[in-house]
């Protein structure tokens, strides 16, 4: 029996109706196949990549850009939504500063620059900066592997990053896909969406001759967080580490990573269906259908909040796979009970 068959047998032999754990069952199967062996416990770590985006200077956000710095600090201190979710569930987390616009680094210091350039004026980053951010993501995955974590989840923080993500997605998606731009953290502000669409369309037109790969798209219209996430996802494939993506931004990073190496697909799991308008397309570009997404909760917070919540459930599912009675043992027990019953009926009749 090869390992894939062993996984099938193990899951099908759980004491439950076949397939009744739905998407969770499919996800745990994928996790085993990614590891290439069975593990008894999910030992996850959550990584949040934080950076600022120069395109905010074009007026495409409702929030103050300084929130990137403040909220990243809250994440380190444990008072952001994602760190509360992590602490409440004993999941360790790390904030990685890949380009926050502040002299002081927040969390682990991989600061490439103090934010990207405004892509509506000039390319978001240089080739060297792109490589530095990709490497930051890769290094964090090496670190996680060395520490013995066997599962990762990814999040991000960066005011303006729904615009950079929509721009990167528009660059790598079929033509005229500017509808991929959504509200971001300005729910309901439609005039802002129109302005974001304009900026994205113009940016893509301007750099079209230079954008040939997903890495080019990140370089010209993306962000350091997207680059680091993409580098991290490529490294997960190398180290056989399965991972959860979160919402729109991480889904775009995955779409880029899958374009650069289609095998990344085998290590990636969707966690929740962000309400950001480009989410479905980003997933499809990564080879994932909406019906494969376990949590549909109209979330659009980022930080990896949906990914951490999914990790909590997946950890419970793996615990069940390891500790639940098997179908064969329950069938044996049921047979013994049935025999005992028929024996007592015969005895009574005597
Ligand atoms: O993950 C998502 O789908 C998502 C959707 C909307 C907003 N966000 C978060 O909000 C910030 C980006 O929103 P914006 O409007 O500044 O582009 C960024 O810090 C993200 O973590 C995240
Ligand atoms: C307060 C706040 C928290 C966030 N967390 C992720 N993106 C965010 C955007 C804002 C505005």
From TrEMBL:
Top-level taxon of origin: Bacteria
Assigned EC number: 2.4.2.21
Pathway: Nucleoside biosynthesis; alpha-ribazole biosynthesis; alpha-ribazole from 5,6-dimethylbenzimidazole: step 1/2
Keywords: Cobalamin biosynthesis, Glycosyltransferase, Transferase
Entry keyword Transmembrane: no
Substrates-to-products reaction catalysed: 5,6-dimethylbenzimidazole + nicotinate beta-D-ribonucleotide = alpha-ribazole 5'-phosphate + nicotinate + H(+)
Gene Ontology annotations of biological process type: cobalamin biosynthetic process
Single Gene Ontology MF annotation: nicotinate-nucleotide-dimethylbenzimidazole phosphoribosyltransferase activity
Family recorded in the similarity comment: Belongs to the CobT family.
PANTHER family assigned to the protein according to its UniProt record, in alphabetical order: NICOTINATE-NUCLEOTIDE--DIMETHYLBENZIMIDAZOLE PHOSPHORIBOSYLTRANSFERASE (PTHR43463)
Full protein name: Nicotinate-nucleotide--dimethylbenzimidazole phosphoribosyltransferase
Species of the source: Megasphaera paucivorans
Lineage: Bacteria, Bacillati, Bacillota, Negativicutes, Veillonellales
């Amino acid at each position: 029996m090869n390992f894939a068959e062993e996984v099938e047998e193990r899951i099908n032999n759980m004491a439950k109706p076949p397939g009744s754990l739905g998407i969770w069952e499919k996800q745990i199967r994928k996790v085993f196949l990614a590891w290439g062996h069975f593990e008894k416990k999910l030992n996850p770590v959550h990584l949040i990549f934080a950076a600022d985006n120069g395109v905010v200077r074009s007026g495409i956000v409702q929030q103050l850009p300084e929130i990137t710095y403040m909220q990243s600090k809250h994440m380190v201190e444990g008072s952001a939504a994602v760190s509360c979710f992590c602490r409440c569930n004993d999941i360790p987390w790390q904030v990685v500063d890949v380009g926050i616009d502040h002299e002081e680094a927040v969390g682990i210091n991989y600061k490439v620059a103090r934010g990207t350039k405004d892509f509506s004026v000039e390319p978001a980053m240089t080739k060297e900066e792109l490589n530095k951010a990709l490497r930051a993501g890769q290094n964090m995955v090496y670190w996680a592997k060395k520490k013995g974590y066997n599962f990762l989840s990814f999040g991000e923080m960066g005011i303006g990053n729904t615009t950079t993500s929509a721009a990167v997605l528009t660059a790598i998606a079929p033509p005229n896909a500017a509808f991929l731009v959504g509200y971001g953290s300005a729910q309901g502000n439609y005039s802002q969406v129109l302005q974001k669409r304009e900026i994205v369309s113009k940016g893509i037109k301007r750099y079209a001759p230079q954008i040939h790969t997903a890495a080019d798209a990140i370089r010209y219209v993306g962000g350091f967080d997207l680059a680091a996430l993409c580098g991290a996802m490529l490294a997960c494939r190398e180290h056989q580490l399965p991972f959860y993506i979160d919402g729109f931004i991480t889904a775009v990073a995955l779409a880029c990573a899958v374009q650069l190496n289609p095998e990344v697909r085998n290590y990636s799991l969707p966690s929740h269906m962000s309400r950001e308008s480009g989410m479905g397309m980003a997933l499809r570009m990564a080879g994932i259908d909406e019906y494969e997404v376990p949590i549909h909760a109209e979330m659009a917070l980022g930080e990896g909040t949906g990914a951490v919540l999914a990790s909590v459930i997946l950890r419970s599912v793996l615990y069940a796979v390891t500790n639940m009675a098997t179908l064969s043992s329950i069938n044996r027990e049921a047979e013994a009970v049935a025999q005992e019953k028929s024996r007592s009926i015969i005895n009574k009749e005597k």
